[in-house]
From TrEMBL:
Cellular compartments per GO CC: plasma membrane
Protein name (database record): Diacylglycerol kinase family lipid kinase
Gene3D superfamilies: 2.60.200.40, Probable inorganic polyphosphate/atp-NAD kinase, domain 1 (3.40.50.10330)
Organism whose genome encodes this protein: Caldithrix abyssi
GO terms for biological process, alphabetical: phospholipid biosynthetic process
Domain of life: Bacteria
Taxonomic classification: Bacteria, Pseudomonadati, Calditrichota, Calditrichia, Calditrichales
Ranges for domain DAGKc: 1-127
Length: 291
């Protein structure tokens, strides 16, 4: 198997860089002659993955959800499968795909398990593999990038609480498979996988290989109601709240007369958007996983 590793040295607050030597030593046993590349800036993994997508059987992302997001965008249209050695903050996709966190186990999975086809979403010209958010959680993503002293799920939890002070709602026109509606929404989530933001199970029934999105629309509600539902989101029981509207579909169009914010896989799409067109590509990417 011809393999290329793309390592994000700042993933996991720098943890990935500290593991680089160990990873190279372990990989030399499983994948002799493997190519190792290191990203240098945001967006670099896309270019690296695109360059390697026709040269290798598997391109392995070493990092978190953000690194995986970039590598996926580079692999689309190529022949290479996706492998993952998880070293990140959120790791929602890794958990959904049952990819082990220990280096040797992750490498063993890649070397021994045949890759499986996974659905990939597309928003305008960008691809995403796990999920997309409009409204509140997009502002949470922006806040999380400024938090330097916390790690893991605490980053997202702190960012959520900080963002609650300044955010209210967005008025969105939502078209799901041709069914049009206008909503005053606290947030809208398009889930390919079940969770975002480090364990927030906003679309708990979502499957990565069912050729459809699960869509969660949380209507505008008072801050105290948001806080109560925040606890429920970890278990997915927020869906029982009548102000939470769940749906499924293969294509969405989201628009508004007022600019709104959005993210894909925890990566910023923008904060002054007015139109998003979202579609799903069934089984578009082969991934080494236990799904």
């Amino acid at each position: 198997m011809s393999v290329c590793f793309i390592l994000n040295p700042v993933a996991g607050r720098g943890k990935a860089l500290g593991l680089e030597k160990t990873l190279m030593e372990r990989a030399a046993v499983k994948f002799p002659g493997a190519l190792f590349l290191r990203t240098e800036s945001r967006g670099h993994a896309i270019r690296l993955a695109r360059e390697q997508s026709t040269k290798h059987d598997t391109v392995i992302a070493v990092g978190g959800d953000g690194t995986i997001h970039e590598v996926v965008n580079g692999l689309m249209g190529g022949k290479a499968a996706l492998g993952v050695v998880p070293v990140g903050t959120g790791n929602d996709l890794v958990n959904a795909l049952n990819i082990p966190f220990e280096i040797d186990a992750a490498l063993e999975l890649i070397s021994q398990n045949k890759p499986r086809p996974i659905d990939v979403g597309q928003v305008n010209e960008r691809y995403f593999i796990n999920g997309l958010g409009v409204g509140f959680d997009a502002w949470v993503v922006k806040k999380s990038f400024s938090i330097k002293k916390l790690r893991g799920n605490l980053v997202y939890l702190y960012a959520v609480l900080a963002t609650l002070k300044s955010y209210s709602h967005s008025v969105l026109n939502v078209d799901i498979d041709g069914e049009k509606k206008q909503r005053r929404l606290f947030m809208l989530t398009v889930g390919n996988g079940p969770s975002l933001g480090g364990g927030f199970r906003l679309t708990p029934e979502a499957r990565l290989n069912d050729n459809r999105f699960d869509i969660c629309m949380i209507h505008q509600m008072p801050t105290m109601a948001v806080l109560r539902n925040l606890l429920r989101v970890y278990s997915g029981s927020h869906v029982k709240d009548p102000r939470v509207e769940m749906s499924r579909g293969q294509s969405l169009a989201i628009s508004s007369d007022q600019p709104f914010a959005a993210h894909a896989d925890g990566e910023e799409l923008g904060y002054d958007l007015t139109v998003l067109n979202i579609t799903i590509h069934s089984g578009a990417l082969n991934v080494h996983c236990r799904y």
